[in-house]
Amino acid sequence: MSSSTWARLRIAAAFAALSVMGCAQGAEEAVVIPAPAVDEPASDAATAVAVFAGGCFWGVQGVYQHVEGVLKAVSGYAGGAKATAYYEAVGEGDTGHAETVQVTYDPSKVTYGRLLQIYFSVAHDPTQLNRQGPDHGTQYRSTIFPVNAQQRDVAEKYIAQLNKAHVYHAPIVTTLEDGKTFYPAEAYHQDFLFNNPRYPYIVINDLPKVANLERVFPDIYRAKPVLVSAARAAAAR
Questions:
Q1: Would you give the end-to-end CA distance of the chain in angstroms?
Q2: In degrees, to the nearest 5, what angle opens at C-alpha 144 toward C-alphas 29 and 124?
Q3: Where do the structural domains in the chain lie, given as residue ranges?
Q4: Are 25 and 200 in contact (CB under 8 A)?
Q5: In this model, does residue 3 exceed pLDDT 50?
Q6: CATH superfamily, domain at 31-217
Q7: Cβ distance 182 to 78 under 8 Å?
Q8: CB 3.0 to 4.6 Å from 18: which of 23, 42, 123, 184, for a disulfide?
Q9: What is the pLDDT of residues 53-107, one digit of tens each?
Q10: Residue tagged active-site, from 53, 56, 90, 207
């Protein structure tokens, strides 16, 4: 078991103890923010892809699985080489990878800009670069991986818009990394939030994000998540 895995288990145990004492602090609060002034243009494409990193991929995946219009959200790694795209290596913090989620969506139901709004509002804290909640290291960095120039333009302009509006207590530090390949994570990381709703780390850090999604974005929240396991089962039929 990697040092990162042991660290996360120790964190979970510590938070569980604090929770029993009524002292645990949950995930960061959602920040209500305006929609992007510039979004991707209308498209006839049946699907599109967005790639986000914002701390532990369990919570980011769990949030997007509850967004109407999202067809699939897969946990994985981006930013480094294929040879090091596995959990034990990424957990050491020196591979260049970030824990990342690839979101496949229907652009007729949800736009890239809307996904960005969720990313900046409830999925993570964009004012923290290499840290989210109890997790520290470059593998937990706040990064957007644009898949084309259009996405980069929308993301850059939205970051500038939000910084100008001073909606956060500090500037947004989210970076944009172009041309990076996404590698799916191990099967046991997929649907982790759904499969482990009582795991202390999930209870304290990630379930509040899903609750914030329902509260802040009720028009696009769906109670039944779209799961990787369900997609795999359907493909196997």
A1: 34
A2: 10
A3: 31-217
A4: no
A5: no
A6: Peptide methionine sulphoxide reductase MsrA (3.30.1060.10)
A7: yes
A8: 23
A9: 999 999 999 999 999 999 999 999 999 999 999 999 999 999 999 999 999 999 9
A10: 56
pLDDT at residue 141 tops 70 = yes
CA distances from 199 to 12, 99, 153 (A): 8, 19, 38
Residue 172: C-alpha distances to residues 115, 121, 127, 188, 219 (Å)? 17, 12, 5, 32, 26
pTM score: 0.88
Helices 207-216 and 57-64 pack at an angle, to 10 degrees, of: 30
- Give per-residue burial for 74-95: e unless 16+ CB within 10 Å, then b: bbbbbbbeeebbbbebbbebeb
Tokens 């329902």 belong to: 214
Query: Is 127:169 a contact under the CB 8 Å cutoff?
Result: yes
Task: Give the tokens for residue 64.
Answer: 């997007």
The residue to which tokens 């769906």 are assigned = 222
In this model, does residue 12 exceed pLDDT 70?
Answer: no
Bridge-partner residues for 154, per DSSP? none
- Please tell me the distance from the alpha carbon of residue 186 to that of residue 74, in angstroms, as a whole number: 10
**Contacts for 175 with CB less than 8 Å, ≥ 6 apart:** 129, 141, 142, 143, 144
Structure tokens at 57: 């991929």
Question: Distance (Å, rounded) from C-alpha 122 to C-alpha 62?
Answer: 11
